[in-house]
Amino acid sequence: MNQQEIFADAQTRMDKTIDSLHHELAKVRTGRATPALLDTVKVDYYGQMVPLNQASNVSAPEPRLLVVQPWEKSLLAEIERAIQKADLGLNPSNDGTMIRIPIPQLSEERRKDLVKLVKKFGEDARVAVRNIRRDANDHLKKLHKNNEISEDELSVELDRIQEITDKHIKKIEAILEAKEKEVLEI
């Protein structure tokens, strides 16, 4: 691997870490309705367990309401059971054509717990980015040791890796700040 490939690999892996953080944070329930809350719900669809969004349309028409419209009415009861079994603290109501899920207000204690969870996800992402930096630096030092790059090139490349690391850490901080604000919002 040459230094360009090492840099590109580190950049790609750090970007994937940010994407993963977004995905994890989307599952964290705030006081606001978001279809991502139901991403973990699996429903029995003709003998196969599939994600809810592959058997129905999930939308949030209001800030405190999720609506699930199955593609087939015969799935209504199965979807309602799956949501209750998912233990998300939600109470779906089936009106015969769709399922409405009101999103209750979060207690202050629950908000604080969610902020701790958000911070944990953020710390995990920061650790992942730092591990990627370490791997890239190790590859670069190996190139230097094998006399494939000079001391000056090594220094320049290590600085480049540090720059993208700092950039990604700042992105993580901004994402966490926004999510914490969203969780604490009443």
TrEMBL record:
Locations listed in the record: Cytoplasm
Keyword match Nucleotide-binding: no
GO biological processes: translational termination
UniProt keyword annotation of Transmembrane present: no
Ribosome recycling factor domain ranges (all copies): 22-184
UniProt GO molecular function: ribosomal large subunit binding
First-listed, main subcellular location of the protein, grouped into a coarse class: cytoplasm
Keywords: Cytoplasm, Protein biosynthesis
GO cellular component, one term: cytoplasm
Alphabetical list of Gene3D superfamilies matching this protein: 3.30.1360.40, Ribosome-recycling factor
Functional description taken from the UniProt entry: Responsible for the release of ribosomes from messenger RNA at the termination of protein biosynthesis. May increase the efficiency of translation by recycling ribosomes from one round of translation to another.
Name of the featured protein: Ribosome-recycling factor
The organism of origin for this protein: Caldithrix abyssi
